[in-house]
What we know:
The complex is a heterodimer of chains A (about 120) and B (about 110).
Chain A: E1 3-7, E2 10-12, E3 18-25, E4 33-39, E5 45-51, E6 58-60, E7 68-73, E8 78-83, E9 92-101, E10 107-112, E11 116-120
Parallel strand pairs in A: 2-11
Antiparallel strand pairs in A: 1-3, 3-8, 4-5, 4-9, 5-6, 7-8, 9-10, 9-11
Chain B: E1 4-7, E2 10-13, E3 19-25, E4 33-38, E5 45-49, E6 53-54, E7 62-67, E8 70-75, E9 85-90, E10 102-106
Parallel strand pairs in B: 2-10
Antiparallel strand pairs in B: 1-3, 3-8, 4-5, 4-9, 5-6, 7-8, 9-10
Amino acid sequence: EVQLVESGGGLVQPGGSLRLSCAASGFSFSSYWMSWVRQAPGKGLEWVANIKQDGSEKYYVDSVKGRFTISRDNAKNSLYLQMDSLRAEDTAVYYCARLTVAAGGTWWLGPWGQGTLVTVSS
Amino acid sequence: DIQMTQSPSSLSASVGDRVTITCRASQSISSYLNWYQQTPGKAPKPLIYAASSLHSGVPSRFSGSGSGTDFTLTISSLQPEDFATYYCQHSHSTPYTFGQGTKLEIK
Lengths: 122, 107
């Protein structure tokens, strides 16, 4: 069974840092792009970042560029999101998701982990 | 950046109804369009990719259509488990934005 389990969320003060982890199992982790998506309380979904299989390509939404870093350790089947200079507007549930590429270059996200809550507040 | 606009934002319907949700892109995205379903407290689940391809395990009452800038998600006969929030997302170019969501409620 494909499984993604996030961890590392919690309460952090504005300006602080947090590192999220996503443990993958049930599939060949090193063969897939991976993503982080977040959802502020009561709000919609926001794509945050993608990372290529070997980590050589990374893409971010503008609002986190220069503050967040996506990375992976294929030997540990793990995805990470290092979040620095956190702001109140970063408060959200953060999901990791597997990115599956289809013919023609289109792709979708699935499955998703259960999410981990990050709260940025003093 | 490509903006994704869903309509309506919320919708009340009954079991057995046929419902359609629309997603419009601010510029052409060909068929690079996905639909997801999210129930309260749960992670989203993929429904449709490439505008009209049904994800494995998704019931055939779900269908998607469209290309370019205008897309639709149709549920042919609503079941109790379909009352949820639906999101479109494009996979055309970064940033891969989602629509604001459509909450489907029981009438």
